[in-house]
Amino acid sequence: MEYRTQAPVRGEWDVLVCGAGPAGIAAAVSAARMGMRVMVLERYGTVGGCLTLGNVTTVMGAVAPGTIRDEIAALLRSPDSSTGIDNEQAKGLLVDLLRREGVEFRLQTSVLDALVEDGVIHGVFAQTQAGLACYCAQRVVDATGDGYVSAMAGAQAMVGRDEDGLVQPSSLMYTIAGVDPASTLVCNHEEHYTDLGDGREYLQTCEKAAAEGRLPANVTIVRLYATGRPGERLVNATQANGVNLLRDGDTERAEILLRAQIEQVNRFLREEIPGFEHIYTRVSASTLGVRESRRIRGLHVLSAEELIEGREQPDCVVHRANFSIDIHNPAGGGQAEREGCPYQARPYDIPMRCLQPLGVENLILSGRCISGTHRAHASYRVMNIAMAVGQAAGVMAAVSIERHTPVSALRYEDVRDALLAQGCKLRG
Ligand SMILES: Cc1cc2nc3c(=O)[nH]c(=O)nc-3n(C[C@H](O)[C@H](O)[C@H](O)COP(=O)(O)OP(=O)(O)OC[C@H]3O[C@@H](n4cnc5c(N)ncnc54)[C@H](O)[C@@H]3O)c2cc1C
User: Which residues contact 348 (CB under 8 A, 6 or more apart)?
Assistant: First the structure.
């Protein structure tokens, strides 16, 4: 095919996956397993997305067994969803996985724009060290997390909550070492009460420090996760509210603010928490962790009500997805919804329609930018679910090529059969 582009065309693949986070990796692997020639483009020098670069080592959420998620969990030796993985090892292991599956990839390659003609996406423009280049493909998977490719292609982006457009806060995750090995203190969430052994309770101690200005603004809880290594904790505490990636300057403001918060949080831990007197930062995220940005509107917008009800979907591509509706407060500290809120979703289905964007043909959504509401996104954004969504996206791309069917007109039965052939469980 002739493309109307000034940039040199680097090649044409069956499936182009933009973004090598958990969802992009799963999409690439599942499409490659269906015999597709797959190219992955990643803006940073490391694959893994939040899992590696974001230092988010606690892979959470659940889906029905049999997905590529299970293989990746085994590869990264994360037997259960709450066990921390070694993200340094993961950087190499995930590259090995892509290579083993015959997936091509380019690192340090930022997607800048989409090549769209008459409403159909044919590839993307990317910035490489050799200059601007065009990567073409029959199908494109948007696994950028931010729905960047979809937005560039002209799809409709939804941002933030309905009432005020605010998104969940961004954070820099970091790992501390130097905790007294005798300390068993962990704090996984806002209802994880722990007696500190000196008449104080951990969560109340955090809240008191926040009220007295000894923690950064809006930081009312310092979550501490076990990493599997003695003397270490993963710290999920820093928080920048009101960051909107779509607004010029917000990203820099958040990066700088959050780095400065790390030392303030550490000072609180050293001065107030027994066993934490000698902690230091061992490693921190290489880049800002963005919980929420664009959600791309698709044929169906998954709602929190469907999650809470545990609804089964006629075109299910991810079965028994399960995680609480975890909304880090867009307007303050802690959780956005506390009292009286049905935090817990029931195991729910993600329908194929949520991966089919409106308005752009042959583009497939994956990972955290699929079509859902602000509240539903707060559940399906976690990595185990993102990987299962990624697998479905890769399969949809491959099936649509095999069947010569545009993505918007895919027959669910064909996608279902291909997912079942890959071992996914979609009912029961
Ligand atoms: C602070 C924080 C804490 C979290 N805690 C947890 C947790 O404890 N457990 C859990 O399971 N989940 C957690 N999450 C959520 C989870 O990490 C993400 O929602 C998940 O990683 C989404 O996967 P993804 O593949 O869609 O996106 P990402 O992991 O964001 O990957 C997207 C990839 O696309 C690349 N990319 C983006 N734009 C471009 C471009 N223009 N060109 C080329 N490449 C591009 C990125 O560099 C990245 O590698 C957390 C998230 C944050 C931010």
Answer: 306, 307, 309, 310, 311, 312, 320, 321, 322
Q: What is the pLDDT of residues 285-308, one digit of tens each?
A: 999 999 999 999 999 999 999 999
The CATH code of the domain that includes 406 is 3.50.50.60
Note whether 369 and 393 are within 8 A (CB): no
pTM of the model: 0.96
Count of structural domains, the chain: 2
CB 397 within 8 A of CB 364: yes
Write the pLDDT tens digit of every residue in 337-365: 865 454 688 999 999 999 999 999 999 99
Residues 68 and 154 in one domain: yes
For residue 381, give the ligand 1 atom closest to its CA: 19
Task: Please tell me whether residue 203 adopts helix, strand or coil conformation.
Answer: helix
156 and 196 in a common domain: no
- Find out whether the beta carbon of 28 lies less than 6 Å from any atom of ligand 1: no
Length of the chain: 428
Residue of 29, 51, 56, 364 with the most ligand 1 atoms within 8 Å of its CB, for mutation = 56
Q: Are residues 326 and 273 in the same domain?
A: no
16 lines ligand 1 (CB under 6 A): no
Q: Are 100 and 116 in contact (CB under 8 A)?
A: no
- Ligand 1 centre from 159 Cα, in Å? 16
Q: Is 21 in the pocket of ligand 1 (CB under 6 A)?
A: yes
